[in-house]
Amino acid sequence: MIRISDDFDHGNIHCVDTSDQSNIQLEIKSDGKADFFQWFFFRVEGCADQSLKMSILNAHKSSYPPGWSGYRTVASYDQEYWFRVDTSYDGKALTIEHTPEQDTIYYAYFAAYPTVRYREFIETIKPSPLLTHDVLGKTLDGQDIDYFRTGDGPRVMWIIARQHPGEDMASWWIEGFLRQLTDPNDEMVAELKQKATLHIVPCMNLDGAKRGHLRTNAAGIDLNRAWQNTTEDKSPEVFFAREAMQKSGVDFFLDGHGDEALPNNFLDSGKGIPSWTDQHEKRFDRYSELLLTTSKDFQTVVGYPTAAPGKANLNIATNYVAETWDCLAMTLEMPFKDADVNPEPTQAWSPERCRQLGKDNLKVMAQIVDDLR
Question: Over the stretch 1-45, which tens digit does the pLDDT of each residue have?
């Protein structure tokens, strides 16, 4: 008899009926104190060579139903190598059909990056003499908010990731970024650190990640809608990051995210902030053009609509930072599906490609650092 569970770090699923392996009925649980839901991550045991048909019944009520169109679920036997499996959406239920080759398998919305993996990764880079580690503060669940600093140049560059805990691609992306940043043989990185000081918060929403949330922290707050009106008791992750920025200043800001619906990688600027100028536009365009020539997975055609002049939401990190520090600030969005500009049928958008995009962004940062002010 098969067993389905989510009683582990970052897990999320509710079993409605598992008595018939050809008609398993599931539901995604919402964020604890908010109505958001789309992230799922569960384990199936006792299933080797059995044909599974699993339907997520409340998919049509999720936070972003258009995201299911053209989507394929990821699966893994070891949580290291993730591959895509047959998935369909009929406008109501999301149905996963797969015959596992092994007795235990994991299924997820995207290649999962639980907090236990995050902590293991952080412990591998803490000893690097090229980084200084500190803790900005504690989350509501008492977790350390890790912070790294490197370089001693005059330009101040801030990089954060995973404000939305179900957007796991942001953690794979920052992993690639930090791996490259700690390469002692990378002359480009060494030159960048002579010109700039980099401040990195690798995971902004550890509580939400551990709890299996899509979008919010332990208090049910969407961190990327809390920058203008942050409070220590509801959104300490933003509160402490913003305090640190106020001390350092900001010349450059990049925030790693994932988008449920759009099947491409793209950048979103702070265009629409009250102080937007042609200089902001030139800096953003130059960064975009350089990333386009550096990364085979990036594109500039598909993206978000631009806010009307002066109407940008200043509670969003990129907009808040761009307006407050008059600097180049951007949100990097990555797909849950695949990048249409460079599709890969087996894994689609994957951890390996996320990590490479992290390295590619670091290369571009080195090229634009002199133009930030």
Answer: 899 999 999 999 999 999 999 999 999 999 999 999 999 999 999
Angle at 133 between CA 131 and CA 135, to 5 degrees: 155
pLDDT at res. 1: 87
The strand order across the sheet containing 14-17 reads 14-17, 24-27, 52-56, 94-98, 86-89
- CB count within 10 Å of CB 344 equals 14
Q: Which residues of 103-141 are buried (b: 16+ CB within 10 A; e: fewer)?
A: eebbbbbbbbbbbebbeebbeebeebebbeeeebeebbe
Q: What are the residues whose beta carbons fall under 8 Å from the beta carbon of 103, sequence distance 6 or more?
A: 45, 46, 47, 48
CB-based contact 259:335 (threshold 8 Å): yes
Q: What are the start-end ranges of the E strands in 151-211?
A: 155-161, 196-201
Q: Residues 6 or more apart from 119 whose CB is under 8 A from it? A: none
Which residues, other chains included, contact 25 with Cβ-Cβ below 8 Å and sequence gap of 6+?
A: 15, 16, 17, 18, 54, 55, 57
Q: Could you tell me the end-to-end alpha-carbon distance of the chain, in angstroms, rounded to an integer?
A: 63
Extract the residue ranges of the chain whose pLDDT is less than 50: none
Residue ranges covered by each domain of the chain: 3-108, 115-371
Is 333 known to be catalytic? yes
pLDDT (tens digit per residue) in 33-68: 999 999 999 999 999 999 999 999 999 999 999 999
Strands 24-27 and 52-56: parallel
Which of the following is catalytic: 260, 333, 344, 352?
333
Q: Class assignment of domain 115-371?
A: alpha beta
Distance CA 176, CA 49 (A): 35
Res 373: pLDDT: 79
Instruction: Report the topology of domain 3-108.
Output: Immunoglobulin-like (2.60.40)
